Amino acid sequence: MEVVFQLSPEIPFRVNPKPLTVSNRSRIDFCRPLSATSDSRSRNRMFVLGMGFVGGFFAEKLKEADWVVSGICRSDSKKEEWEKKGIDLHLFSADSPEWSLLETVKDYTHLLVSIPPLADIGDPMLRNVDLVRGKLSSGNLQWLCYLSSTSVYGDYGGAWVTEDHPPNPRTQSAKLRLAAEEGWLSLGSDLGVSTHVLRLGGIYGPGRSAIDTLLKQQHLSESQLRRASRRFTSRVHVEDICQALQASIEKPSSREIYNIVDDDPAPREEVFQYALELIEKRWKRKIETKPFLYESREQSSLRGEKRVSNEHMKNKLGVKLLHPSYKSGLQSIGEKMDNPF
């Protein structure tokens, strides 16, 4: 019997009341409430390498569902912030990692990797892959997921691309992403665990959206300016990323890659114009905005024009997008915001 309970108004987590075993390890076992005498090692345990926007959002969902959750961060202030939420983190420096951390990681059943590669060394964990493999092979790991980027596809002239299209990264960061993908997929195969790569579009959500950027009156960042002149920009709401992560846990597979994007690869200018209209409509206030800055098409092409298909995510994982377009996503964000004026 499948039990459905709500972690948030938007995202139901489906669970099986049976304990996690080899035969049903594809299901998320959110058996709560647990008694005070329950053995924590019988529960699902997620370790998040990189407690950033996505990792943190998903960690809170799992925490609410009574998973054991931990991970890494780079500063004491971040560690204290998460401790107030009931999640203990380990300090970690990508430049000089403490490999003793692996003694902790190996006791976890699930591992989410959300650390961007470094310009000079690539993925910080994979530079000592033999040690990582050795430690995790003697642990409890069942599921491994690496969060990548659709930038690995490069330029397809605006055509639709699927997971079957060969990557052709144009930038150094995209090349490092692709190398990290291959490294984690190979490691997962060596360990014999369910291994996934999620290629994410532009990530947005509460506190990180076109509405927030306009309200804060901040200048566009360098990366935002590079994207400004593109005809197509694939994006995805963080809640839909969580849906994809949930589904990938429930449906184990080997060396599987998914594009995690919405249905509407709209240009950035269109998204910001819609966000401006939402602000004016909801709060009856006009805000001053500077014209969008554009660079030449030649510079923009380094990142590549493409429309990224999400059909594999829908068909294989069964994900039904909560926000198939930026319009739905921005409306949801705006409706939940307090009056910023």
TrEMBL record:
Isomerase listed as a keyword: yes
Domain NAD-dependent epimerase/dehydratase span(s) in chain numbering:
47-260
Per UniProt, which keywords does this protein have? Answer: Isomerase, NAD
Q: Please, which domain of life does this record's source organism belong to?
A: Eukaryota
Kindly indicate where the leader peptide sits in this chain: none
Pfam families listed in its UniProt record: Epimerase
- Note the Gene3D superfamilies from the entry: NAD(P)-binding Rossmann-like Domain
Give the Gene Ontology MF terms in alphabetical order.
isomerase activity
Q: Can you tell me which family this protein belongs to?
A: Belongs to the NAD(P)-dependent epimerase/dehydratase family.
Q: What is the recorded name of this protein? A: NAD-dependent epimerase/dehydratase domain-containing protein
